[in-house]
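Quick illustration, no need to memorize.
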Amino acid sequence: MSEYSKIKTILVVDDESHILNVLSLKLQNAGYEVVTAADGEEGFEVALQIEPDLIISDLQMPFMNGLEMCTKLKEQPATANTPALMLTARGFSLTQTDLDQTNIVGVLSKPFSPRDVLAKVQELVEDKVTQRT
């Protein structure tokens, strides 16, 4: 099986279990393999272990927030080019500097539609495949 035909793995990192459940179900139903983590520290460790095709992360989490996690992941050779989609509470925004120091390629505000997240995931995973060819 070639790299491009394998099932894509999405790491979802959020401290709210209902968001992990909703996103996991939506992504799994769309054919993705989904791995979850409950905070940024766990997300960082899991990302290094599984080297996902995409990371979806909440911004505000205990222990290590999503921005810190994405900054640390960009510094690691195994995850330096792994794109991330950030979920933020309304009113929270990321600066251009934040984006430049990470691989955050999209930001969605909570509350969000799972359908919108899936559409963005499909777009980002397709972009990643296109960039490699």
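The mean pLDDT is 86.
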